[in-house]
Amino acid sequence: MQAFRPRAFLLLASLAPAFLGGSAAALQVSAPKPAAAAEELPTARAVIDRFSDVTGGKALVEKTTSMHLKGTLSLEAMGMKGEFERLSAKPDKMLIKSSLGGMGSTLIGYDGKVAWMDNAMLGGPQILEGSELMGTLMQASYDSGLMTDREYEKLEVQAREPFEGHDCYKVLAVYRAPADPEEAKATEKVRTSLSWFDVASGLQIGSQSTQAQAGSEISVTSVNADYKKFGDYTFPASMTQEVSGMKVVVTLTSVEYDKVDPKTFDLPAGVQALLNDEAKQPVPAGSGGK
Questions:
Q1: Which of 51, 56, 222, 242 has the fewest C-beta atoms under 10 angstroms from its C-beta?
Q2: Which of 208, 193, 202, 192 is nearest to 42 (CA)?
Q3: Using alpha carbons only, how large is the chain's radius of gyration in Å?
Q4: Secondary structure (3-state) at 199
Q5: How far is the C-alpha of 203 from the C-alpha of 276, rounded, in Å?
Q6: Are 110 and 127 in contact (CB under 8 A)?
Q7: Is residue 286 part of a domain?
Q8: Residue 285 placed within a domain
Q9: Residue 22 CB: number of other CB atoms within 10 A?
Q10: 210 in a structural domain
Q11: What stretch of H or E contains 110?
Q12: 97 near 274, Cβ under 8 Å?
């Protein structure tokens, strides 16, 4: 049995599928083939936009105002199972609920202003800052799956290479940096990711990113499979995520559109209490406050 890593385990328990857009598209498995030395690679925008076209991601963003995803989590190596829900609404509100085994439930939310998390094993509710805040903001954007030029400062096709048995384009993405240079440097790893898109089908086969949670930054590898239509849009019904040698299988079972109650994103009482406590803190001398 794998060594137990509490922080990585809690991160696994809170992971849920990011928005991937949709439309009818069958997953085509193509045999990997080496790229010719002088092969001209497509632009990253062309690769990402094709993914949106074959899955309907752009149409989803244009025609819907909210989404409610439900599914299951399975950590087979430890015989643990759980469930997740991801609720999101335009332009950038999000709530993720998850549980896995006996670790209790984890809530991660963003109401458009405040990012927060609540897990009893990590001390209860907390306001997210730094890299954790950045990671939440990146997920919360309703059109995050489109990887728009507005949100990304760099998108680049680095190579054509095999990934999980597919002939893929490897895309480097760097999310826009905060204005503060120190924040930009501190969040660089979380803002940077790699994705692999199948050359034949245009579908995203997997990704590698750095997730920040519980004071740690952990590398996460995700592999998408079994793309299916949920309503008019297509998502990977299965996603295998690996964190620190542990693998969890995320299975998407249902997606509803335009049915999320706006009150869903209201801050919980415990989070609001933290904000109230912060507001009561005395202003440091010399700060200019009164």
A1: 242
A2: 202
A3: 20
A4: coil
A5: 45
A6: no
A7: no
A8: no
A9: 26
A10: yes
A11: strand 105-110
A12: no
Residue 115: strand, helix, or coil: strand
Q: 114 and 267 in contact (C-beta within 8 Å)?
A: yes
Count of domains forming the chain = 1
Q: Is 76 helix (H, G, I), strand (E, B) or coil?
A: helix
The 3-state DSSP class for residue 210 equals: strand
The angle formed by the CA atoms of residues 176, 143 and 67, to the nearest 5 degrees, is: 140
Average model confidence (pLDDT) across the chain: 85
The CATH number given to whatever domain includes residue 70 is 2.50.20.10
Number of residues that make up the chain:
290
* CA distances, 79 to each of 75, 76, 120, 163, 247 (Å): 6, 5, 22, 28, 12
* Inter-residue contact 55 to 234 (CB < 8 Å): yes
CA-CA distance, 86 to 146, in Å (whole number)? 18
For the residues 107-112, what does the mean pLDDT come to?
A: 95
Tell whether the model's pLDDT for residue 249 goes beyond 50.
yes
**Residue 187 backbone zone (phi > 0: left; psi -120 to 50: alpha; other: beta):** alpha
* pLDDT (average), residues 110-136: 92
- Residue 36 pLDDT > 60: no
- pLDDT grade, residue 213 (50/70/90)? confident
My answer on whether omega of the bond before 282 falls inside 30° of 0, hence cis, is no
Phi and psi at 128, nearest 5°, equal -85, 140
**Looking at the domain assignment, is residue 235 inside a domain?**
yes
Other beta carbons less than 10 A from residue 165's beta carbon: 12
What tokens were used for 214?
């519980």
Distance CA 134, CA 138 (A): 6
pTM for the whole structure: 0.85
CA distances from 159 to 24, 35, 43, 53 (A): 27, 8, 11, 22
